[in-house]
Structure formats: C-alpha cells, structure tokens
Write a structure and sequence with these properties.
Number of helices: 10
Order of helices and strands: EEHEHEHEHHHEEHEHEHH
CATH class of the largest domain: Alpha Beta
Number of domains: 2
Strand order of the largest sheet: 1-3-2-4-5-8-9
CATH topology of the largest domain: Rossmann fold
Distance between the termini: 40 Å
Number of strands: 9
CATH architecture of the largest domain: 3-Layer(aba) Sandwich
Structural class: alpha/beta
Length: about 260
C-alpha cells in the first residue's frame, strides 16, 4: 500500500509513526525541531489520515506498508520511532527488517498484549451524526456527551475532514471498530539486537515495572526511561523532555 507521508528537514532519515486515531500531522511541530538535524518522514498508517483504507488491518500489514515506503524512498539506514500503536508497528518492523534500522525508539507502549480499552472512544465517534453537523463545534458537542477531556476531543477532531458532500472521518472507523482487538496484539519473541529506547510517561500505565523484563526478553540491552509528569501522549505533554531524551540516545556511542 502506498502511504501518504509528510517530510521536513534534511540529512540522515528519521521516520515517525503515529498512534491509533492519529496521523502524521500530530507530530509536525515536534518534527520541525527534529528536522534541524534529521530528514524527518511521517507517514499516515493505513486506515488513518490521508493514506488508503483497507479491510486488512494488523501489525504485519502496517509493517509491510512501511517497508514499501522505505523502498520507494530508497532508504538504506534510518532511525525509527513509533508512538503507541505506531510503536508496535515499529517493533514489528525491527523484527522483520533490522538491517535497515540504525536505532529504534518506542514511545509509551510495550511488546505485551493489551486488552481492548478504546471502546468508549469508538462509541463516541460512532455517536456523531455526520449527516447533520454543520460545524466542527457541532461534532464536538456530540463527542462531549461521551468524552469529558477537552484534549482528547481536540485530538479526535483533527481527523474530521470536509468535502463537497459534508463532513467525514479521515480514519476508517468501521474497520478499526471491527478489528480493534488487533491493536492489542503482543509482539512475537523474535530477538532484536539493534539499539532500542523505550520512553514512557510517568502518569501513564502503558509501560509498567513488569513490562521491563518483557522488553528485555526481545530487545538486547534496551534503554527504558519514564518522563516525569507526562501521560500517554508524551510528545504533547513534555515535548522538550522527550526531545532531550531522544537526542541523548541518538548521540550516544557505545565503546
């Protein structure tokens, strides 16, 4: 599948993968700063953003899509970072194509199985009657009946598109809803030897103490850190701290 992607910066390639219900635009401000030293490439994963939609939606397919993009851009080596669902895609890619990766960065997700916990958001999105809304505020009013958090509503509303027929969701809500179990899939136990950094938010429970041993079973000598006062969206809560953590990891050379 040919993915849509955004790009900024120059020099050594650095690919960023967004999470569930996200898209490349979520990382644009972060990427502009990172682009001072890297060529930052941000694809929309399948069934998200401006990329094509498909009934096939799992980590293997998304990792294969990424590899197709890598080959189309003629990339040899690059750094790869993924957040949440994008982190699982990145881990799968590292297992399948380790020779392409310089370093791997995984933001607030572990390789373990996660039970479905997005049903509230799916119900909220399905509750929005797209045929009747006339403004984005109308959509937000309907989302607010299910979702109290203003920030979460704004994150979801970035996916609200509009054409001559009216408003629509950019993500494939039907397929995501039907196959949401796939997002929680555990990684296989195939070993990965490339340098890997796992960054969690101290206010998030996605990477707990018990996950550290699971990470170490797959990834050789991983660096695992938590950023203080950050939740699941680490790049939105603490962008400077995340940038500093990433920079230190990328600049470190083992002796």
């Amino acid at each position: 599948m040919k993915l849509y992607y955004r790009e900024t910066g120059k020099d050594f390639p650095f690919i960023i993968l967004h999470g569930l219900f996200g898209m490349s635009d979520n990382w644009m401000s972060f990427a502009r700063k990172l682009g001072e030293e890297y060529r930052v490439i941000m694809p929309d994963l399948r069934n998200h953003g401006n990329s094509p939609q498909s009934n096939d939606w799992n980590y293997e397919a998304m990792a294969d899509d990424l590899h197709e993009l890598v080959e189309s851009l003629d990339l040899d080596k690059f750094n790869l970072m993924g957040h949440s669902m994008g982190g699982k895609v990145a881990m799968n890619y590292a297992q399948k194509h380790p020779d392409h990766l310089n370093k791997l960065i995984v933001v607030d997700i572990a390789p373990r199985y996660y039970p479905v916990h997005h049903q509230k958001i799916i119900d909220a999105l399905k509750s929005v009657n797209l045929s009747t809304i006339k403004t984005r505020s109308d959509a937000e009013d309907q989302l607010e009946k299910y979702i109290d958090e203003w920030g979460v509503r704004q994150f979801l509303l970035k996916n609200l598109g509009r054409n001559s027929d009216g408003y629509y969701w950019k993500f494939n809500l039907d397929v995501i809803s039907d196959k949401i179990e796939n997002v929680g899939e555990a990684l296989s136990e195939k070993k990965v030897s490339i340098p890997a950094l796992f960054v969690g938010g101290s206010k998030s429970d996605y990477i707990g103490d018990s996950d550290k041993e699971e990470i170490k079973k797959i990834f050789a000598d991983p660096v695992i850190v938590h950023i203080k006062d950050a939740g699941h969206w680490v790049h939105a809560d603490k962008p400077d701290e995340l940038m500093d953590t990433i920079t230190q990891f990328l600049n470190y050379k083992s002796t």
